[in-house]
Amino acid sequence: MNINQEQLNIFKTVMEVGSFSAAARKLGKVPSTVSMSIANLEIDLQLELFQRKGREPVPTAQAHVLYERTEQLLIEMNQWKQQALALSAGLESALNIVVVSELSHSNWTDYISILERQFPLLQINIFSAPQEDALQLLMNRSAHLAILFEREQLDSSDQFVELKKEVLVAVSAKDFQLAQYQQVSFEQVLQSRQIVVASRNRSIKPELVYSKNIWRTDSHHSACTMILQGFGWGILPLEMLNENPKLAEQLKILDFIDFTSRFEYYVDLVWSRENQLGIAAQFLIKHIQKLRQQEN
């Protein structure tokens, strides 16, 4: 069976306009071309699609059944061609982006919307991981792009562009022991259990650790739940509290005497110069770089 897109388009048009001659006019073809195409389609399918007893062909029951699927099939064939052209132009078969766990609440989806509008056929895969694991995904090329907190030391292969500034704050449940004090000393922090968002790899030391006793989780949502249950205090995104008034009512932002309990970080879009990027990743990077230049 050798059915092509043009045959399906002619069949669809004949079904919609009701005659071979009208279909020919609409498609800019001679009637004999339309008639021959339908005849060849009937031979390929081994089905009679039109009865030719009167002046105009009459669609058979089989033709009506096939017509219901024809438009969707033509759409899929066009999408297949567009995908093939995009891939030949350098579009990734899929774009993998890892987002640091604490940033999963933020507006990173705005950047995905930009990609979706520009590359509607692109498959985008989003992963969430603690900072250390996100870096590892980038290094082993499991992720093409990463949305991370700024780092004091950069790998020589890393490249980045700043996205925004994010504020993290120390919090506890309002009935937790530290919440009973107007200000908290370093010694009190040291002796109170801390809930830390960290890599599953226990050999990797997490950042922003102040307590002697820590519990680890790889999700800030899990950390928040544990903090609310009074298992310990922790550091969460301020924006997470701002977006959820009910959560803000249940938590208290701690005020440390000896050092700040408010941590400001830039958030970067990071990629590796050793990882060959496709046109979608390159487009997003250039788009963000252009936005940064306009802001400056």
Would you kindly provide a written description of the structure presented here, covering whatever features stand out?
The chain is α/β, with parallel strands linked by helices and 296 residues long. It has 3 domains: 5-89, Winged helix-like DNA-binding domain superfamily/Winged helix DNA-binding domain (Arc Repressor Mutant, subunit A, Orthogonal Bundle); 94-164 and 266-295, Periplasmic binding protein-like II (D-Maltodextrin-Binding Protein, domain 2, 3-Layer(aba) Sandwich); 167-265, D-Maltodextrin-Binding Protein, domain 2. Helix content is 43%, strand content 22%. The chain has 11 helices and 11 strands. The protein has helices at 5-17, 20-27, 31-45, 61-88, 109-118, 131-139, 186-191, 220-228, 238-242, 245-250, 279-295; strands at residues 50-51, 58-59, 95-100, 124-129, 145-149, 158-173, 194-197, 214-217, 233-237, 251-253, 262-272. The strands form 2 sheets. Strands 3, 4, 5, 6, 7, 8, 9, 10 and 11 form a 9-stranded mixed sheet that branches. Strands 1-2 form a two-stranded antiparallel sheet. Helix 5 links the parallel strand 3 and strand 4 (124-129). The longest helix has 28 residues, at 61-88. The radius of gyration is 30 Å and the shape is elongated. The chain starts with a helix and ends with a helix. The mean pLDDT is 87.
